[in-house]
Amino acid sequence: MKNKSEKIKVIDRKASENEYMHKDFHGTLCYVIKYLEDNYGLGSVEQYLQQVAKTYFLPLTQKLKSEGLKALENHWREVFTREDGKFNISYEDDKLVLVVKQCPAIAHLKTRDMFFTDKFCLTTKVVNKTICQPAGYDCSCEYKPGKGKCIQKFWKEQK
Known about the structure:
- By secondary structure, the protein is an alpha+beta fold.
- It has one domain (23-156): Muramoyl-pentapeptide Carboxypeptidase, domain 2 (2-Layer Sandwich).
- The protein is 48% helix and 18% strand.
- Strands 1-2-4-3 form a 4-stranded antiparallel β-sheet.
- Helix 1 (22-40) crosses helix 5, helix 2 crosses helix 6 and helix 3 packs across helix 4 (69-82).
- The longest helix is centred in the first third of the chain and has 19 residues, at 22-40.
């Protein structure tokens, strides 16, 4: 119990005043992926990632449906700029192409010698598909696990 003479200090802060900490989330995600795979199999990892994407990225799915590929372009540009990723975004025919030259998540994990699972890049494939499909889009991701480079493509599904 506190002494009556001790005062409680109240700090009033807005979320926007805090340091951006999302990159540290990736380390935790690597442990989650390993735990789920080790204890429940790879299918459980995919189910987990799908559930996260369906809820967390629902606003992005809705924007994609209403605004088209420009919504994804804006999203990726914001994320990779904020996290200091090295990337290019362009359009080839009717496809949005995101070339990741240095993944900020993998770079963060490796420069800090944090745990990394080679299944981490599966996150991109599963989450992107889960964002795209309800909006009528499809996607692909070409990568070599752990290299921190990939080519992601997004396009409107043909009916």
